[in-house]
Known about the structure:
The complex is a heterodimer of chains A (424) and B (308).
Chain A: H1 2-16, H2 19-47, E1 51-57, H3 63-69, E2 81-88, H4 94-106, E3 111-115, E4 126-129, H5 135-156, H6 164-168, E5 175-179, E6 182-186, H7 189-221, H8 225-229, H9 234-274, H10 287-314, H11 318-337, H12 339-344, H13 349-354, H14 361-371, H15 376-404, H16 414-422
Chain B: E1 9-20, E2 23-34, E3 38-42, H1 49-56, E4 64-69, E5 72-73, H2 76-80, E6 82-85, H3 97-107, H4 112-125, H5 141-153, E7 159-163, H6 171-186, E8 190-194, H7 198-204, E9 207-212, E10 215-221, H8 222-229, E11 233-239, E12 251-256, E13 260-265, H9 272-281, E14 284-291, H10 295-307
Parallel strand pairs in B: 3-8, 3-9, 6-7, 7-8
Antiparallel strand pairs in B: 1-2, 1-4, 4-5, 9-10, 11-13, 11-14, 12-13
Helix pairs in contact in B: 3-4, 3-5
Amino acid sequence: MRKIWLVIKREYITRVRTKGFLIATVAFPVLFIGVLVFSALIATRQTNRSLKIAILDEPGYLGTLIARNLKDKLPGASSAIEVERIYDRPGAGQDLRRDLVEQVRRGALDGFLVIPKDIVEGKAVELHTNNAGDIRLTYSMGQAVTQAIIARRLAARGIEIGNLETLLREVDLRLVKVTKEGESEEKGQTLAIAIVVTMVLYMTLLIYGVATMRSILEEKTTRMVEILVSSVRPFQLMMGKIIGIAGVAMTQYLIWAISGSVLAAFATGLLTALQPGSSVPKVHLPLSLLAYVFVFLLVGYLLYASIFSAVGAMVSNEQDMQQAQAPVTVLIVVPVVLFGFIMRNPNSTLAIILSWIPFFAPILMPLRIALQMPPLWQIAVSIILLALCTLTVVYLSARIYRVGILMYGKRPSLVEIARWLRYT
Amino acid sequence: MAHPENTMYALSIDRVTKRYDSIVAVSQLSLVVRQGSVFGLLGPNGAGKTTTLRMVMKILIPDEGSVQVLGQPLSERTQDVIGYLPEERGLYPRMRVRDVLIFLSALKGLSQAEASRRSGEWLERLGLSPWSNMNVLDLSKGMQQKVQFIAAVLHRPQLLILDEPFSGLDPVNSLTIKDVMLELKNQGTTIILSTHRMDQVEMMCDSICLINKGRDILDGDLAEIKKSYGKNTLRIEYSGNDGFLEQPGVIERINRFGQLVEAKLFPGADPQAILKAAVERGARIRRFELVEPPLNDIFIEKVSETDA
């Protein structure tokens, strides 16, 4: 026990001390938050300025109606879109258009709207703008034009409506998620949680599994391993490495979780201070989900880190390692590929069976739990099968490992590896 | 039940066999190493030396037979009283020299403080103090070799196994390591030396075991082995024409080193005939000595006998 602890400690300390760990741990969230803050800044800057547009009103009766329908306001109470000028029945002259295009190019205008004569019969409206990606502009303009046209069509049938907006107001669809614990309002957080859970599991299994493999190959290529196994049993060495790297992963997640919740609290406070009355949707992470994710992450990591350890021990160079790890990586990628299917049918027979297959279970079962809590017995079957498979894989990997670390040269065939398993 | 006389042996290997599939790496090998002696484990490449040493280190498990260290069956405890310098060796490249040494000796049961103190002393002694806080990969190959040697002796092993300890070392460093080995021997450490350098074996070893194809082909006290061959070899240092060596029925085999030859005589042949011929032909003789055969010759003879 003392020896395995020493191996764990060395693996952990040498890793946590590296620049790579520091960069990954600090730079990743800083970069992430930096992008968020930057895009928020850009967004707020844009909304400070009203967009200026012109309207070329061929029919001659829609321009003012549309202008009246543009009701979006900026925080400063000025209109989000200001109609600079309405050209009433300008005719087919190209000079005006050319002039407007020039104004848009210069930045004097943000765009101009061309309303054709046959608009009521369904002819398309044209919006000329230098920023076709501005969803706010296109959405508002589309709404305003549509409302104006509908009013016009109704009027043509003899229906006069004073306040069309009230009539056309869309129905709010409130999603309420029904769970065993009760009901909770859904604002997309289920999908968000499902994506985060899948990505965290996927990234951890892959990144830290590969780290274990590389570490083992390094001990082999530097010929450190023979000195080590003269003091430590190969199994202790392998498990020490797997546990040490798991510790590194947990440290990283802990740092992120703590700094993340501090920042989230800070950001919420900042948002409420800037925009009183606005509320941040509360993401409620059920404790049971966290517990399940942790269990599947732990056992899943042990499963994949063991396989990766065997791969690291059976090869002698980087190229062979790349080839030998490919099938293992595929096993981890499959659940991510299945994400869409599981999301739509979390309780289909196929989804249930897939989440029982031990190599997929570490990702698929937590995903199902995140989407819709499956019956407890299904989770139990998944955990039992995963645990049994992991124990078998750890046993086999340890046997491959103890032979592999002392073998150099070409990559062994499957037949040779099968023979290694029988070595005493 | 352990034999009471086993306690006087630092190592005893009893009819050990190790197979890999159809290949028998070690076959019914038995040997004993007296406490406090320097023992040479010799053999051509692929003879089974490394496999044998790995079994002593409990890295491999014998298929048959048993191994005892200081009268004890192999265990984690016996691993801790052995120091092992494998032939294929290396250290964590991105770890500091001192940290590697502390880690490796902690694995052998040393406390952090003691490991730190002793590694400081050893680094000082082998002239590596200025590098103790550098990463292993910043050291030259020779320096790394010395660090590996320190790693093998830091926990004061009772049995020290050195596989080619001098390979890659310059003459100055070789001398330092040799002196340390002798000092350890005088302190009572048993040393097993595995090497292809027969001159070193002749100078350092008390007894040897020569193995080929996994089998013991010659073992015992080195002086006695050599004595058993008798003084059957002529060592001649000369200048001039070497035609005098061609005397029918006198020299069975000859090994030339330029200025010096070692010639094995036929049993019962008279070396006087050679001396006479040399004088007649005008060769200048600086040394003419009848000696026991060099270990190198015994090695070659024995190995080719068993290969045939």
